[in-house]
Write a structure and sequence with these properties.
single chain, about 280 residues, 2 domains, eight-stranded mixed β-sheet, 11 helices, about 20% strand
């Protein structure tokens, strides 16, 4: 679809939108993983107009903090696909809430996934930590987790983490992550929510965790109704958020199944699609 064409229905009136939740990679960020100057300016203008911007991402605290610092972003973020809440008001990422995976449930989930596909390797993620099996780290590049593989904490046996666990990541040396996701999803591993962000691994959190659930909780606290929320995303892990939001947005580069949910298609991430929407939203004020 071309930017601004309708998806699942006619776009709702935007003048009443009070909160815009946006995915980062593939949506707000350009393909070089940066926030453009246009996008940074559009977010600042939206905030000045009384529109709250919330980042909703699979990323971890440290990389979200680095991006926020570079872009001058001082809002809220939902990280780890909804398992971690951050406040970036003072320029540093402060964890304000987590949804943890019980160790027993994590161990059972990893065992079940290994039964689905032998050879799968794992890492355990906390609000501020990352512990990987050596074979997992050996498959990684820096951009996978914005951590240098040789600097990762390693453990021969997982679970092994010094703080509450918020996410498990899994990958296979020979099977693409999208296929692994389909296999694990079809096997209905109990006790976890499994998703895929387009990265070379799949992600598992506690049952019920999603960007949508985290945003619903945040909006309830702020007294913002779902009809006053617009959400933008491009990948499978954005689907619950787009289904929940009053106005669903997708960049032109979104997966077909994601684009099908959109009330409105935006220009691609490399063409600053979210900034385009925010500029129109501010102008409508």
């Amino acid at each position: 679809m071309n930017g601004d064409n309708a998806g699942r229905g006619t776009m709702q009136v935007v003048k009443d939108i009070l909160l815009v939740a946006t995915d980062l990679d593939g949506t707000l960020l350009r393909s070089d993983h940066t926030v453009s100057s246009r996008t940074a300016a559009a977010m600042a203008a939206a905030r000045d107009a009384g529109i709250e911007i919330v980042w909703a991402t699979a990323r971890a605290r440290h990389s979200v903090g680095d991006l926020a610092c570079a872009a001058g972003f001082r809002g809220l973020a939902v990280c780890a696909n909804g398992a971690v809440a951050l406040d970036l008001a003072d320029g540093t990422p402060v964890v304000t809430g987590t949804v943890d995976i019980e160790i027993e449930a994590a161990a059972a989930a990893m065992k079940a996934v290994r039964e689905v596909l032998p050879g799968v390797v794992f890492a355990n993620v906390g609000p501020t930590s990352f512990v990987a099996e050596p074979r997992y780290a050996a498959l990684c590049e820096f951009v996978d987790h914005y951590r240098h593989p040789h600097e990762m904490d390693l453990a021969d046996a997982l679970p092994s983490i010094a703080e509450p666990m918020v996410k498990i990541v899994a990958r296979h040396p020979d099977v693409p992550a999208a296929e692994l996701y389909r296999m694990v999803l079809a096997s209905a591993v109990p006790g976890i929510a499994v998703t895929h962000s387009g990265a070379p691994y799949i992600e598992m959190a506690a049952s019920g965790v999603s960007k949508a659930a985290a945003l619903a909780e945040l909006c309830a606290v702020k007294g913002i109704s779902v009809d006053q929320v617009a959400a933008a995303g491009d990948a499978v892990n954005d689907i619950p958020m787009l289904e929940w939001a009053g106005t669903a947005l997708a960049p032109a580069n979104a997966l077909p199944e994601v684009a099908a949910l959109a009330h409105r298609m935006l220009p691609s991430n490399d063409d600053d699609g979210v900034a385009h929407f925010l500029e129109q939203l501010v102008a409508s004020r």
